[in-house]
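Quick note —
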Amino acid sequence: MIRRKIAQFMWGRYGARGFDKLGTALFTVGFVSCFVGLFFRGTVSRILFGVQAVCYIYLIFRLLSKNIPARQKENAAFCNFFKKVKNFFKLQKDRVKDRKTSVYKKCPKCSAVLKLPAIKGEHTVKCPRCGERFTVKNIF
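Predicted structure written out below.
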């Protein structure tokens, strides 16, 4: 009986599909701010409580929303942003890992990052993305 009433209430709402990536991130940030807030007092604790409240209120708003295309658009924008952040940190990790054997240079035209062998001297390189030819000077 109650389960059917809840299902009827959630019919046509975005939350009927469960959590998406943005919903999971909001829940995680709220939970972490709650947990970290246990170790602080005063202003920091109030700020973390505010962050937690905003995350959970927005999460509930998204779950109960009937504007499904807008929520999907928000999730797609979050996924695109998160992908860029993830790729940035992956590039930094690869740079540290390959620091003895490779050099990373940016294409002056399209800004693609190219992984080149660490060979001393001046080399001409062709960008695989845009086809631009440019000169690279390796000093190491």
